[in-house]
Design a protein that fits this description.
There is one protein chain. This protein is α/β, with parallel strands linked by helices and 355 residues long. It folds into 2 domains: 203 residues, Isopropylmalate Dehydrogenase, CATH 3.40.718; 137 residues, Isopropylmalate Dehydrogenase. It has a 10-stranded mixed beta sheet, with helices on both faces. Strands 6-7 form a two-stranded antiparallel sheet. The longest helix is centred in the first third of the chain and has 20 residues. The two termini are 19 Å apart.
């Protein structure tokens, strides 16, 4: 297979971890006789510095023409003023909207070797393997808003959803559940929010159309509690943009680190954006201590969902499991008194495990 992959390292440790994702994809290409062409473009704070735009038109055009996009992270203290007219995060939201990426898939898998990295007791983590489908281009991040100004210290953000936006995200969840353990949980706040009552109406109707899938609903505050009390009960969670953002960051504590969680952002076609869910962590950028496994596992999702290369994706995931089983750890998942490996060394260990 020949594929064009656009890389958007972005800012901070996005640069460090994306390099390791590319390294592993290059190894996959060699081992499985594929040809992957990588094309790097600007996005985020570095793009603001270069051209004054967090998502240059050239970058968005390249992403549209690519078979898949591997993205790192954006942001940092240099661009952190929330009142600034141009901010790195605007590029990320614009890319999702511009590419029509409405479903964000975030798998949460527990590696037995990392049970000691989680603050939860080991028995609560047994059997945890869940997928969060987060709606990505609607809701409060994209609704009408008003910023506070000196003469009027009132601000608001609007959570707005249409039936179609809810339906297409939920359809992804039901399809995934059919390939997994056959259960979908809708997380909402239907006791308070009108938009959540729309979610519940639409998704309950879809559940009736899919009687082979077990379905339940849960309020978001209860879901936040049960994700820590009984996380193994979840299979596929589908939820609105804001709730999915918060819940998946919470879920990172199940595996012990944001550095372990990959994601895929998908739309109607096969093209998608694949990224670790962590931020740019500028305080550790360039120091060789960032965990690249989330980016490497995101590369595996790229192979699976955009290129249709299931065996190759599974090979990366097995290599990561093998490296962890052998005891290798980056600083974020190492015990306090244990030795750790560098970002680059971890990437190389995965390459060697592949071979």
């Amino acid at each position: 297979m020949e594929a064009r992959i656009v890389t958007l390292p972005g800012d901070g440790i996005g640069v460090d971890v994306t390099a390791e994702g590319v390294k592993v994809l290059e190894a996959v290409a060699r081992l499985f006789n594929h040809r992957f062409r990588f094309e790097e473009h600007l996005m985020g704070g570095c793009a603001i510095d270069a051209v004054g735009n967090p998502l240059p038109e050239e970058t968005l055009a390249a992403c549209r023409e690519a078979d898949a996009v591997l993205y790192g992270a954006v942001g940092g203290p240099k661009w952190s003023d929330p009142t600034a007219a141009v901010r790195p995060e605007q590029g990320l939201l614009a890319m999702r909207k511009g590419l029509g990426l409405y479903a964000n898939l975030r798998p949460i898998r527990i590696y037995p070797e990392l049970l000691d990295a989680s603050p939860l007791r080991a028995e609560r983590l047994e059997g945890v393997d869940l997928m969060v489908v987060r709606e990505l281009t609607g809701g409060i991040y994209f609704g009408e808003r008003k910023e506070a100004v000196p003469d009027d210290l009132t601000a608001y953000d609007t959570m707005i959803y249409s039936e179609e936006e809810v339906r297409r995200a939920a359809l992804v969840a039901f399809r995934l559940a059919r390939q997994r353990r056959g259960k979908v949980t809708l997380v909402d706040k239907a006791n308070v929010l009108a938009s959540s009552r729309l979610w519940r109406q639409v998704v309950q109707d879809m559940a009736a159309e899919n009687p082979d899938i077990r379905f339940d609903t849960m309020l978001v505050d209860a879901a936040a509690m049960h994700m820590l009390r009984r996380p193994a009960d979840f299979d596929v969670i589908v939820t609105a943009n804001l709730f999915g953002d918060i819940l998946t960051d919470e879920a990172s504590m199940l595996v012990g680190s944001l550095g372990m969680l990959p994601s895929a952002s998908l739309g109607e076609g096969s093209n998608g954006v694949y990224e670790p869910i962590h931020g740019s962590a500028p305080d550790i950028a360039g120091r060789g201590i960032a965990n690249p496994l989330a980016a490497i596992l995101s590369a595996a999702m790229l192979l699976r969902y955009s290129l249709g290369l299931e065996a190759e994706a599974a090979a990366i995931e097995a290599a990561v499991a093998s490296v962890l089983a052998a005891g290798h750890r980056t600083a974020d998942i190492a015990q306090a008194d244990a030795a750790s490996v560098t970002t680059q060394a971890m990437g190389q260990l995965v390459v060697e495990a592949l071979q």
